[in-house]
Structures are given as structure tokens and as C-alpha cells.
Amino acid sequence: MASFFFFFDTSLSLLLSSAKAIEDGDLKSADAFLQNILILADQISYLYESRMVKYFAEALVRRAYGLHPPSSYFTFPVILYRINGVIKKVIDDALMGNRRLHLIDFSIPYYNNYFEGSVLRTIPTFSGDPLLHMEKT
């Protein structure tokens, strides 16, 4: 069984490679990367991390082929108490020049103020709108 860090690093690398292939229009390579991601995610015993990786792999498939989910309800499998700190550290590292930041907008709907006060609310998209669109329900 693969260790958690191997799983995380490999999954992230494959997701970014797949996103780059999609951006370049190379759907054959993107499909190969995504197939490897899903195989790796099925082999790992970390349930939440596996779900997260599968979610983003499926989002890349939807983005590549122009598919839209049947429902726009909150389906993002996030561990809410951890994510804001992780995202803030990644952004801080990128701003300090320590690491590059590759941000992919998956158009994830956020409901019920799950990310109220999130650091993601301060990042603009290419259109200048906030990354998170808070909808009051």
C-alpha cells in the first residue's frame, strides 16, 4: 500500500499534468493521466483524500469534454476545518516567491456560508470577480 505522502504528491503531479494536457488540447494524454489518478485513488486507504482526488479528476474530465453535473448542489468533499489554513499557506508561499501557484477554477458552488471568511474570497478570477461566489440560501 502506498504511503500518504506518495499518494498526495503523485496525485497532485498527475492532476496538474492532466490540467496542462487539457489546456494544450491533448485529450489523449489527459485521459491517460486521469486513468492513472483514478487507479491510484482506488488503491489508497485514506477515504477523504481519495474522494478529494477523485472529485478533482472528475472535474477535469467535465472541463475537458464540456460536461456539466446534473445538479449544482454542494458536492465538494472538503474537510472544512483544515482547508482554509492549507490554502492560506500555499498562497503565502507563492506570494513570498517560495513556490509557484497554479490555481484552477472548477466553478465549485459554495452554499450555507461554508467558506465565510475564507482566504479564497480575496482571490480574484480572470474576470476580476471573487473566486468564491457566496450564495445566501
Describe the structure.
It contains 4 helices and 2 strands, in the order ααααββ. It folds into 2 domains: 4-65; 80-135, no CATH class. It is mainly alpha-helical and 137 residues long. The chain has helices at 4-23, 27-43, 47-65, 80-95, and strands at residues 110-111, 134-135. Strands 1-2 form a two-stranded parallel sheet. Mean pLDDT is 69; it is low at 132-137. Helix 1 packs antiparallel against helix 2 (27-43), helix 1 (4-23) runs parallel beside helix 3 (47-65) and helix 2 runs antiparallel to helix 3 (47-65).
Percent of residues in helices comes to: 40-55%
Largest sheet entry: 2 strands, parallel
Distance between the termini: 42 Å
Widest sheet, order of strands: 1-2
Low-confidence segments, given as residue ranges, are: 132-137
Order of helices and strands: HHHHEE
Keywords: Signal, Transcription, Transcription regulation
Family: Belongs to the GRAS family.
List the helices and strands and how they pair.
Elements: H1 4-23, H2 27-43, H3 47-65, H4 80-95, E1 110-111, E2 134-135
Parallel strand pairs: 1-2
Signal peptide: 1-21
Family: Belongs to the GRAS family.
Keywords: Signal, Transcription, Transcription regulation
